[in-house]
Design goal:
By secondary structure, this protein is an all-alpha fold. It has two domains: 65 residues, no CATH class; 56 residues, no CATH class. 67% of the residues lie in helices and 0% in strands. The chain is built from five helices and no strands. The chain is rod-shaped, with a radius of gyration of 29 Å. The two termini are 32 Å apart. The model has no long low-confidence stretch (mean pLDDT 84). Belongs to the anion channel-forming bestrophin (TC 1.A.46) family. Calcium-sensitive chloride channel subfamily. Keywords: Cell membrane, Chloride, Chloride channel, Ion channel, Ion transport, Membrane, Transmembrane, Transmembrane helix, Transport. Its main location: membrane. GO terms for molecular function: chloride channel activity.
Length: 130
């Protein structure tokens, strides 16, 4: 709904090995220059303000494209995976219930199912996979 059928056809027929986010910006620049020549934009300062805002928006799109272009290095995912599993192991050992009043020899750990620690692990592991 942002383009006419003709504009969509021109956009689709344009061959580019990368994203074509810049094409509407070129169209906008040409239309703004044409509007200035025809007198619909009365002042060159107004045209310059329009073009500056358009260039700022285009640079934001370019920055976003750059983030998409460069992937996250593998070492980051490995560090995060190691951190999640180490945190879970520490929580599994550290959150076990130990009742010292019972007089256990050597204060062995009680064995029970840590429900909330497991839920926390499932959430973290799920986020990790995403």
């Amino acid at each position: 709904g942002f383009m006419t059928r003709h504009e969509r056809k021109v956009f689709d027929d344009l061959k580019s090995p990368h994203l074509k986010y810049w094409v509407p910006f070129v169209w906008f620049g040409n239309l703004a220059s044409k509007a200035r020549k025809e007198g619909r934009i009365r002042d060159s300062v107004d045209l310059q303000t329009l073009m500056n805002e358009m260039n700022k928006y285009r640079s934001w799109c370019s920055l976003l494209f750059g983030y998409d272009w460069v992937g996250i290095p593998l070492v980051y995912t490995q560090v995060v995976t190691l951190a999640v599993y180490t945190f879970f192991f520490a929580c599994l050992i550290g959150r076990q219930f130990l009742d010292t009043d019972q007089g256990y020899q050597g204060h062995d750990l009680d064995i029970y199912i840590p429900i909330f620690t497991l839920l926390q692990f499932f959430f973290y592991a799920g986020w990790l996979k995403v």
